[in-house]
Automatic annotation (TrEMBL):
It comes from Microvirga ossetica. Keywords: Glycosyltransferase, Transferase. Gene3D superfamilies: Glycogen Phosphorylase B. Coiled coil: none annotated. InterPro entries: Glyco_trans_1. Belongs to the glycosyltransferase group 1 family. Glycosyltransferase 4 subfamily. Signal peptide: none annotated. Pfam families: Glycos_transf_1. Residues 207-347 form the Glycosyl transferase family domain. The keyword Protease does not apply. This is Glycosyl transferase family 1. One of its GO terms (molecular function) is glycosyltransferase activity. It comes from the Bacteria.
Length: 376
């Protein structure tokens, strides 16, 4: 029987054990599942969070200092273990200027093991200014990586431009665990009064900006029949409810829903998932909706085009364009055959191309050359 080799897993932006849900936490957990299914034994190396949202240089200096101390502790810990219990690879999820990895490269060097990043992004415009130190740490980590698992075409462009010659860039598109979202397989016919669905946290910043776009777009569609279910909660809830004040009779706010079975029921009952995706990296909810046969209208930000097939599984509109978003939603609401076809395409796309098993296979193929024992 082959014993799974340990892999040190680290998520500097948000630990998979973080108490508050988000797409980052979900993907961190999924990557650990995929590593396990790929034949490794992922172990969370550290809970150290390096996120600096405000651009505070003193905070970044403190984070770096604490991270270096954590790296020293981990090196001593791992070196004290028998060789077969030490990690064969360090795997970091999500590195960028607001959440650099100061730990992984140092531990990997000390243990002489490969260093891999999944979802790393470069932002040269942050080399100076409030996040300069965080940018420095992120760039150093990205330069150090033996391989970067690229999750969106948007990230690949910048990564390819300054890729060190020894470094591999390997596609690992966003995925979900379909066993967490078992479809019943018998979606009801499109409702006489079409049901729209949004699932998103209600917080200041980008999420609130998306809600603003959505409310403004739907106000333009009051001549059409539709109802909107909104799942989510947070500090911006009161303001978001006010945004939809003119549509109050058509909108139902469900609050946060933790139960996947309850949330699945809403996905399956919806005819169209609507989310402007303002500044989204890609959006896990877009994958979830499609997995349950619900087509999507979303804004074409960042890596959203890597999770929604424009014209096939949904419609992507110009980022931030309220009129274009309203037109896309209105057009689909009035074309039931297209709406139904897109839902069927969405289900096939996710179940055939974006499931956990396929992601595990991609990981195995990417990591085996790096972790192969000498002479094996």
């Amino acid at each position: 029987m082959t014993i799974a080799r340990p892999v040190a897993f680290y998520a500097p932006l948000k630990s998979p054990n973080h108490p508050f849900p988000s797409g980052d936490r979900t993907m961190a957990r999924l990557l650990m599942k995929a590593l396990d299914r790929a034949g490794y034994a992922p172990q969370l190396a550290s809970e150290m969070r390096t996120l600096d949202k405000a651009g505070d240089r003193q905070r970044q200096k403190y984070i770096r200092q604490q991270s270096l101390a954590e790296a020293s502790r981990l090196i001593a810990h791992y070196q004290a273990l028998p060789e077969e219990q030490r990690p064969c690879l360090w795997f970091t999820y999500h590195v960028y200027y607001k959440a650099p990895d100061w730990i992984g490269p140092r531990v990997a060097d000390a243990l002489d093991i490969p260093y891999v990043i999944a979802e790393g992004s470069r932002a040269s415009k942050r080399a100076n200014g409030s996040w300069a130190l965080g940018h420095e740490g992120a760039e150093a980590a990205l330069d150090h990586a033996d391989a970067i698992l690229v999750m969106t075409a948007h990230d690949r462009q910048a990564l390819e431009t300054v890729r060190p010659q020894r470094q591999s860039l390997i596609d690992l598109p966003p995925f979900i665990d379909l066993q967490e979202w078992p479809a019943t397989g018998d979606r009801s016919p499109i409702n006489t009064e079409p049901r729209l669905l949004t699932v998103a946290m209600m917080r200041e910043g980008d999420k609130l900006a998306s809600y603003r776009i959505l409310a403004a777009a739907l106000e333009r569609l009051q001549h059409l029949p539709w109802r909107l279910d909104v799942v989510g909660d947070g500090e911006a809830r009161e303001e978001i409810v006010r945004l939809f004040g003119a549509l109050a009779q058509r909108v139902r706010f469900h609050g946060a829903i933790d139960s996947k079975s309850d949330l699945r029921a809403l996905y399956e009952a919806a005819d169209l998932f609507v989310w402007p995706a303002f500044n989204e990296a890609y959006g896990m909810v877009l994958l979830e909706a499609q997995a349950l046969g619900c087509p999507v209208v979303a804004g074409a930000y960042g890596g959203v085009a890597s999770v929604v097939q424009h014209g096939e599984t949904g419609v992507l509109t110009k980022a931030g364009d309220i009129a274009a978003f309203a037109e896309a939603v209105g057009s689909l609401l009035q074309d039931r055959k297209r709406l139904r076809d897109m839902g069927e395409n969405a289900f096939r796309f996710i179940t055939q191309e974006r499931d956990l098993d396929r992601a595990a296979l991609r990981l195995r193929n990417a990591l085996e050359p790096l972790t192969a024992r000498p002479g094996a």
